[in-house]
Structure formats: structure tokens, C-alpha cells
Design goal:
The model has no long low-confidence stretch (mean pLDDT 89). The chain has 311 residues and is α+β, with helices and mostly antiparallel strands. Helix content is 20%, strand content 26%. It contains six helices and 14 strands. The strands form three sheets. Strands 4, 5, 6, 7, 8, 11, 12, 13 and 14 form a nine-stranded mixed sheet that branches. Strands 2-1-3 form a three-stranded antiparallel sheet. The protein has three domains: 5-46, no CATH class; 52-146, Pseudouridine synthase (2-Layer Sandwich), CATH 3.30.2350; 148-311, Pseudouridine synthase, CATH 3.30.2350.10.
Length: 311
């Protein structure tokens, strides 16, 4: 049986999807199950459909480019910016800006709405992201994220003091049965394995009832809202995270700090979460690359505020 070297440019998940979509034939008979077992010699023919034309409009939007070469680009995303278009939201995303900046040279593996997208962070999370310009780079980076060989370090500010200075949270995460727009920790096998390590950088005691913690987290897996869900489950919800915190703690704060947190985080639903460090192996340059970004002004200024008034 002959297997084309071109398949090396496609991830296992992509090939499985192609099979499930009816693009594989064995001896001219269509195979629609990726688990199909060969019991005799024959000819396998996998048809790779042409990529659909991308309907996303390139937009001349300013980007904070941290690094760029012919294969990939690393962006420091501002809070409030959506990574890629979705139904009902086709403009003013990072992908719109990248299509303009890269002159449409983004990998096609992510599909029509996600060209170049290797991984994502939430709209109101800031920080580092890598995008691929070709399919080979995209596949390699995706495998690194899947195999947990990347570095993904976040800085965050939470309510309360963690019970331990550092540790690892290993709780499965799945869709909430109460609110389908939320994720939750679950013991069910339906949930996916999620691992987050954390370390307290500094605790700020404001008064007898309120503590705010500056914490560093490293992602070992990449589940939806993982840090937000894990920290909330641990009793340390992120400041400003309306989805996983009531943010009631801010009511008892000194007036100036209370107003700052409300206007900079709570009112705009900006969780105090920043993807500060990103590391991966460059598949073309054959070397490890690590990028770091400064804390954005809102989180940095909040820390300065806390340094001045904490007990």
C-alpha cells in the first residue's frame, strides 16, 4: 500500500474528518468511518477537497506584532478583541486584521472562519497568540499543543487568598448542565481532562474581609475557560469575571479602589487575565522560541493601586 508524503501535511484529526465526510474510497467504494479496518489488499484513495473561498473581509486594523516570519506570526492581543469570526460576528476580529496584514497568507486547516488559528483566548482576555501561515506549520504547532510541549503562562488577579501557595488543579471540565454557555468542573466521564498549575505571586490584604491575589498559572491542557473555571472552583474567581464570579467582594473595598475595579473590569466584564508567556518549537527554524509580554495597563495599574493600599 502506497501512502503519499503529502499526508504528512495533515493532522490525524484532519484526516479523520475527511474520512467521516466521505472523501475516502477503498477499491472504489466509499468509506465513511475512520475506524474502518482493512481485511484485504486494495487501493485507498483519499480526496482532498479544495478549500472553500474565505468570505472574511481583510481589515486594516492595527496589530501588536511580537514576532513574524514566513511561517507564523505572534500577536499580543488586547482585551475586547475577538480572535476569529463566528456567526453574526464577521468583522473586527484578529483574523480580519491578519488577513489584511498577511495578504491572505494564512493556513487553511482552521477552515473558512478560522484561517491560521492554532489556539484561542477569550475575547476579554489579553495576551500572546501564535497564528500559522502554512499548513505544515499549523499541523506542527497543533501537535505541540496537543502533546503539551508548549509553554502557556498566564498572570491573573483573583478574589481571596488561595489555601496553598502553589499547586496543581486536576479536575475534568465539561459543559454546565444548568447554563450551557458556561463550563464547569465535573466528575462525569463526559468532561475532558484539564490540568492547571498555579503559584501565588503576592497576596494583597485590603481589609479584614477582602484579599486580592496575584497568581501565575501554567496550562497543561487547553479547555474552554479552563483557568477561569479552575480558579473559581478553588474559591479564587478572577476579578471582573462575570460568568464565573459574582464579584461581590468589591462592595466592601475603599471607594477609590472600588471605583477603579468596577470601571476597569466589572462594568466591561474584563476578567483580569493575561497570557504573558508563550513558548513552542519552530518547525521550520528547528529551534525553541519563547515570547513574553508586559502586563497590560489595566492589570498593571491595579497592581500599583494594591501595592499602595494593602495592609
Amino acid at each position: 500500500m502506497f501512502i503519499s508524503n503529502k499526508l504528512n501535511n495533515y493532522s490525524r484529526n484532519r484526516v479523520q474528518s475527511l474520512i467521516n465526510e466521505g472523501n475516502l474510497e477503498f477499491n472504489q467504494e466509499k468509506i465513511t468511518q475512520s475506524a474502518f479496518k482493512l481485511k484485504q489488499c486494495g487501493i485507498l484513495r483519499l480526496t482532498i477537497p479544495k478549500l472553500k473561498e474565505i468570505k472574511i473581509e481583510p481589515q486594516n486594523i492595527q496589530l501588536n506584532v511580537v514576532y513574524e516570519d514566513n511561517n507564523l506570526i505572534v500577536i499580543n492581543k488586547n482585551a475586547g478583541v475577538v480572535v476569529h469570526p463566528a456567526v453574526g460576528n464577521s468583522n473586527n476580529t484578529l483574523v480580519n486584521a491578519l488577513l489584511y496584514h498577511c495578504k491572505n497568507n494564512l493556513s487553511g486547516i482552521g477552515g473558512v472562519l478560522r484561517p491560521g488559528v492554532v489556539h484561542r483566548i477569550d475575547k476579554m482576555t489579553s495576551g500572546l497568540l501564535v497564528f500559522a501561515k502554512d499548513d505544515y506549520t499549523h499541523n506542527s504547532l497543533s501537535e505541540q499543543f496537543k502533546n503539551k510541549t508548549t509553554i502557556r503562562e498566564y498572570n491573573l488577579l483573583t478574589w481571596n487568598h488561595p489555601s496553598k501557595q502553589e499547586g496543581t488543579i486536576e479536575n475534568r471540565i465539561g459543559r454546565s448542565k444548568i447554563n450551557r454557555q458556561k463550563m464547569s468542573v465535573t466528575n462525569s466521564s463526559v468532561g475532558k481532562k484539564a490540568v492547571t498549575s498555579y503559584k501565588l505571586i503576592k497576596n494583597y490584604k485590603i481589609n479584614k474581609k477582602c484579599n486580592i491575589s496575584h497568581i501565575k498559572c501554567n496550562l497543561m491542557t487547553g479547555r474552554t475557560h479552563q483557568i477561569r473555571v479552575h480558579m473559581s472552583y478553588m474559591g479564587n474567581p478572577l476579578i471582573g469575571d462575570k460568568k464565573y464570579s459574582r464579584n461581590n467582594h468589591y462592595i466592601g473595598l475603599p471607594e477609590k479602589l472600588k471605583n477603579f475595579i468596577y470601571s476597569s473590569f466589572i462594568s466591561i466584564e474584563r476578567q483580569a487575565l493575561h497570557a504573558r508567556k508563550l513558548g513552542f518549537f519552530h518547525p521550520n527554524k528547528k529551534k525553541e522560541m519563547i515570547f513574553e509580554s508586559k502586563l497590560p495597563n489595566d492589570i498593571y495599574n491595579l497592581i500599583l493601586f494594591l501595592e499602595k493600599i494593602s495592609i
